[in-house]
Amino acid sequence: MLPLAAALALTCLAGCESPVPFYQPGDGSPDDPVVGLGGPTPYLPARPGAPAPRASESGPSGGVPVAPAGGRVYAATGPGMLAPAARGVPPRLYVPNGPYIDVLDPAGLRIVGRFHTGAAAWRVAPSWDLRRLWATDRAHGLLVPLGPRSGRRGRPVGVTAPTGLYFSPDGRDALVLARHPERIDLRDPRTMAPRASTPMPCAAGHADFTPDEASLVATCTAAGVLVRVHLPSRAVSGTIRLPAGARPGDLRLSPDGSAFYVADARHGGVWLVDARHFTLLGFVRTGPGARGLAISRDARRLFVVGRGAVTAVEFGSRRIASRWPLPGRSAVPGGVSSDGRSLWLADPAGFVYALSTRNGRVLQSLRVPGRPSGLCVHPQPGRYSLGGTGLYR
Prior knowledge:
393 residues, four-stranded antiparallel beta sheet, 1 helix, 3% helix, 40% strand, globular
């Protein structure tokens, strides 16, 4: 913890200043997931005389606009396009590793700190407003808030069998995908207090959102099914059963909003699903074990991480542009660097490394202790986070 806190302090001494006003940690409980982590003022009653944020600048939680960006899904996630809340946050890699989350500095690739989560974290996702991180422990049913600026851990929140954490595009709800029972739990995105639940026909693990941002589309790997949930009514509005044997995993909406790309490790490729009519369009074979997805900073290519290789698919032509070998047999994508030059991956065999998004060459590599189960690159460009791994708008 001390190395991380020291690094963050030195960064701020060098001129880091948040454009969003913050209350002092002493104004609330040190375990509070917002105030205790240096939370933004919009989550608290305004001080007398404080100016209200302009409607054109503020979403429901303040500070980040939620209107569509120029009609293209990833128009606000280009190189260096950091939201105000993310500016000044030192670039870091957060690697879940059993009861710890190792914190790496990508510049020089070295471990600079460690969170002891008190849990067995397997994924880390930024909050909707980008001001904190949430570690998911599916084995013990916990969500653990972490402060990327302060280097402090908040109080864990008990949840039911979480398989994924997402946030509604308007920032009003945290959406916890759960199994046993199969459902989506709607929670307060700040405190994770429960609000409501939506029953699901199967256990979902990955999700993305429709172009109109009114529905969540989730994949159920074991059942081979995609499920669409209408958020305002909190009801299942459609299902697609993929061909026999399919095991759908990660999914991403195309930049033009026309189709979802759904990774299928069993069939070795990505299914294309019409995003508006929710019908199956076709299949692009990329290679064995296709499981993880990431989108290039220019939103022209989809990186499909499979068994021993990464395949780049051009969105425009829906054809394979290139295929690069990986140094190991298995890898989990963590996201693309802010400048778009590197794709970061974690290997459960004990490695974290970066591939060039231009030619697939390994740029950096580091052996880390234990068996990393995931990777989170933070901060990344975008107005807000939708949770999951590298899902921004």
